[in-house]
TrEMBL record:
Cofactor(s) listed: FAD
Gene Ontology CC terms: mitochondrial inner membrane; peroxisome
Protein name: NADH:ubiquinone reductase (non-electrogenic)
Residue span(s) of domain External alternative NADH-ubiquinone oxidoreductase-like C-terminal: 431-497
FAD/NAD(P)-binding domain segment(s): 66-397
Gene Ontology MF term list: NADH dehydrogenase (quinone) (non-electrogenic) activity
């Protein structure tokens, strides 16, 4: 094995040489042939010629057209799942390499589900990204775009300040799909970003879980005052939408079924407060809202109507001067345009989203589409901006994939080749209804197509069974469906996992 040790030494030397140059910001590729012959050529000490690259160049006439997708949310992932990779090469750019099944994210905060149960790898959603020569996934953020030259400018994501410097590169596209999502709204309130935790990503749920369990354990330390113990165990949720209500319901279930058994010394101190400026679940039927209010109150959730004025390290202040101390603060007040969307010089819809027409194209630019929470109909279409819901994003992704497939089959996949092409029927959204769980094996199902329309509304245990069944079937892969079902069964039999890892 002397040749293998020589190979390892040469590889280590080359790695140190490559990393010792602080001015290098582009990756260097070495051929496998060089590594395989390193041991035999060690005496001659050759200097390999690096292949420099600054991104993906425009596609050649003999290559498939390239679709660049920005984002791995509901819209982008549904598009990548349905797009025909025989017609297109797919390049995905996103700061995360997975999709999050957001309807079940609140359940992971208290151990009802494990985190991997709600995350699906992009390589599983679209296998071509992992194996096709012209398709790639780039762990990066889009920083800007040049729509005149069909270019997006990107910067790689790094893991903290002590990791590698970010690499900047460009990607040429034939078709660009902006599905970068939105960011949580803070309404300019000071202290929210510093002290509150949002609930949109897996790492948010991990942070909430660690914080919650840490506060439970700290509250049992000898010498902690009664006042400090009450503050540590006060969980405050701001925002009475479906996410805030579902998290409050999961938290109350966790307190009733697990905390009172395993943290008996502090079971009387832990409290949950839900703060909402108006009515909770404002998009639901009035009868369902009243039912949810009664059930949450019965579960021990304190409902407060108020507006947050300021957030400090250990308390928040309402506009009427009320001070609310907290140990855990979860912020769920809706979403708004991201910094990238705000920076783009593209037509905008009411509310600041990227404006699109009836076929989800961005007007005034060629070969650019926008879907999901970052997009909205321009005023000239006469259509209202659709709500930032998973079902809206998913159906936009499905529609656009079919549209791009039809364009590709009509030889319009290349840049500037779809001008004047008949695109068929425009996108039409039909609301399928809303669901929310409120804890204690109870949920709400509102099947009305709009807030003003009439339709079927259900509540109670049967709604909870429908809620679980519907979301179990909507989980993307059979692997994750199996994970979710097993997690639910394990929680039912053995209780939630309260390990702080």
């Amino acid at each position: 094995m002397a040749w293998f040790r020589s190979l390892v030494r040469v590889a280590a030397i080359e790695t140190r040489k490559a990393s010792s140059n602080p001015l290098s910001t582009t990756p260097t590729l070495y051929s496998l042939k060089h590594l395989s012959t390193a041991a035999s050529n060690q005496r001659r000490d050759p200097q390999p010629t690096p292949i420099q690259y600054s991104g993906l160049e425009p596609t050649r006439p003999d290559e498939k057209p390239r679709v660049v997708v920005l984002g791995t949310g509901w819209a982008g992932c549904r598009l990548m799942k349905d797009i025909d990779t025989k017609l297109y090469d797919v390049v995905c750019v996103s700061p995360r390499n997975h999709m999050v099944f957001t309807p079940l994210l609140a359940s992971t905060c208290v151990g009802t589900l494990e985190f991997r149960s709600v995350a699906e790898s992009i390589g599983r959603i679209q296998p071509a990204i992992s194996r096709e020569p012209g398709s790639y996934f780039c762990l990066a953020n889009c920083t800007s775009m040049d729509t005149n030259n069909h270019l997006v400018h990107c910067e790689s994501v790094t893991d903290g300040p002590d990791s590698l410097d970010p690499w900047k590169f460009k990607i040429s596209y034939d078709k660009l799909v902006i599905a970068s999502g939105a960011q949580p709204l803070t309404f300019g309130i000071q202290g929210v970003k510093e002290h509150a935790i949002f609930l949109r990503e897996v790492y948010h749920a991990q942070e909430i879980r660690r914080k919650l369990l840490l506060n439970l354990m700290l509250s049992q330390v000898p010498g902690i005052s009664e006042e400090e113990k009450s503050r540590l165990l006060h969980c405050v949720v701001v925002g009475g939408g479906p996410t805030g209500v579902e998290f409050s319901g999961e938290l109350s279930d966790f307190i009733i079924k697990d905390v009172r058994q395993r943290y008996a010394h502090v079971k009387d101190y832990i409290k949950v407060t839900l703060i909402e400026a108006n009515e909770i679940l404002s998009s639901f039927d009035d009868r369902l809202r009243q039912y949810a209010t009664r059930q949450l109150t019965k579960s021990g959730v304190r409902l407060v109507r108020g507006i947050v004025k300021d957030v400090k390290a250990q308390k928040l202040i309402l506009t009427d001067g009320t001070e609310v101390p907290y140990g855990l603060l979860v912020w769920s007040t809706g979403v708004g345009p991201s910094p990238l969307v705000n920076s783009l010089e593209l037509p905008k819809s009411p509310g600041g989203r990227i404006g699109v027409d009836e076929w989800l194209r961005v007007p005034s630019v060629q070969d650019v589409f926008a879907i999901g929470d970052c997009s909205g109909f321009v005023e000239s279409t006469g259509k209202a901006v659709l709500p930032a819901l998973a079902q809206v994003a998913e159906r936009q992704g499905k529609y656009l994939a079919q549209l791009l497939n039809s364009i590709g089959k009509a030889e319009g996949g290349k840049a500037n080749m779809a001008n004047g092409m008949d695109l068929g029927k425009p996108f039409v959204y039909k609301h399928l209804g809303s669901m929310a769980t409120i804890g204690r094996y109870k949920a709400l199902v509102d099947l009305r197509q709009s807030k003003e329309a009439k339709g079927l509304s259900l509540s109670g245990f049967m709604s909870w069974f429908i809620w679980r069944s519907a979301y179990l079937t909507r989980v993307i892969s059979w692997r994750n469906r199996f994970y979710v079902a097993i997690n639910w069964l394990t929680t039912l039999v053995f209780g939630r996992d309260i390990s702080r890892i």
